[in-house]
Amino acid sequence: MKQLSDYTDMIIMAPFCLGYLWAADQFYKKFLGASKRREQLFLALSFCGWLLRNVLGRRSSWLYLFFALSGPVVFMGLVVALFQSDKEKRILAASMLMVPVRLVADFFVSFLSCLELLFLHIIKKIPEPFFTDWAIGVTGGIGFCFAILAVCWMSRHLESVFRPKPKRWYAILAVPLLVINTMYDVAILGASNGIMVRSGSNMGLYYDQMFSLGGCLILTLLSMAAAGFYVFGMNRIYLEQEKSNQYHSQIAVYKMLAEQHRQTERLRHDMKNHIIALSALARNKEWDRIDDYLKHMEDLVLDEAGDLTGNKTMDALLYQKRKQAERENIQWECDVQMPRGCCINEFDLCVLFGNILDNALDACGRMQGEEERFIHIQAKTVKRCFLIEVKNSMDRMEKYLDGSTNKGDSQEHGIGLLNVSDVVNQYNGALHKEAEKGSFVISILMPLPDHAEFL
């Protein structure tokens, strides 16, 4: 029976392990969601598993090997069983903390262990120093502290990775991380037993330990780099592809608007001929044909009571969005006055207003109950700058998350605002988003050239 002193390192690390598990629980709660009871169950089971692995793993090398290899599988099982969201997303979230965070902790543990060995060998003049349980506990606790910092950093910087995406994408991202984790487990087990790197039989225990720890440092650095480049690189590629797809869709819309303008101009040009044709039909009392003729003209002509901005493309875009709002019983207020000589080309204007208004219409469409639904649009020059401000109603229970909401098609919502941000940055402008209970406001301010004039 082992004495209590034999578990000194585990006792020292226990509170740090609890801190890390609490940070992991907050990470999963943010990106996956879970009830309070399930969160508590995750903390309790994870900590008990850690204690069991450390206690039984000291009984024999085979038990240690078993728990070392099965630990990640059990941890992933707890995450998949106790948290919400898609299964693929839960697997990715579990692998995020199993690989990068663990690598961070192991890197600093190996680094501090190297420093301790150097201190004991060079300063204390101990020929073959070894680690005490107390020293192992302290370095392990510090490793957990860096793991907690890594989890906090990932919580702030992985929001775009966990935005709603196809399930297959989460699986594609998770598999290489799990492969890295498996290879790292095998390599680290070898290193911990002096198998992976040895200095040679003539150099002694000190150099064996230094070579093994040095090998761990290199391995963790390479693994962290591979995991980081893969996760952020894949996410960047996905966002660029989505933005490209939206741009192509917007080009198609822009061409459609241009064609609509041409049809309207042709219709106005031929108005005299249309009046003659209608008069002939009226004289012959062909009322059904007159009705069909007028409906066809209605489809081609923009509503004269629509929003007139001084820009024909913008007029057509606002006309379409206003009609959609009217069909959905959304209150529409629009005051858009384009400056003459505006430096923003028509396509970029369509990107700005199209994406913002699409998101506003989606937010209004998701509202439940009898709450008032509205979209208020204002655009004008303010001190040699072009100001765009759009305010729309939204569900009071909805939470805004950095570019998207937690309901509806937030994938498209977030990509749309990324396209808006790209246009604003292209013109050296500034963008501000503010969400309050029941409303969302987006404001854009872009400088105008000196020759621009207010209409």
Descriptive account of the structure:
The chain is α+β, with helices and mostly antiparallel strands. It folds into two domains: about 240 residues, no CATH class; about 140 residues, Histidine kinase-like ATPase, C-terminal domain (Heat Shock Protein 90, 2-Layer Sandwich), CATH 3.30.565.10. It contains twelve helices and seven strands. It has a five-stranded mixed β-sheet with strand order 1-2-3-7-6, with helices on one face. The chain has a two-stranded antiparallel sheet with strand order 4-5. It is elongated and about 115 Å long.
Helix and strand content put the structural class at alpha+beta
- Integer tally of domains: 2
Q: What is the tally of beta strands? A: 7
Give the rounded overall mean pLDDT: 79
The residue ranges in which pLDDT falls below 50 over 5 or more consecutive positions are 401-413
Q: Number of helix segments? A: 12
Characterize the biggest β-sheet: 5 strands, mixed
Q: What's the alpha carbon Rg, rounded to whole Å?
A: 32 Å
Q: What is the strand content?
A: 5-15%
Dominant shape: elongated
What gap, in angstroms, lies between the N and C termini? Answer: 89 Å
Oligomer designation: single chain
* Lateral strand order in the biggest sheet: 1-2-3-7-6
- The percentage helix is 55-70%
Q: H/E element string?
A: HHHHHHHHHHEHEEEEHEE
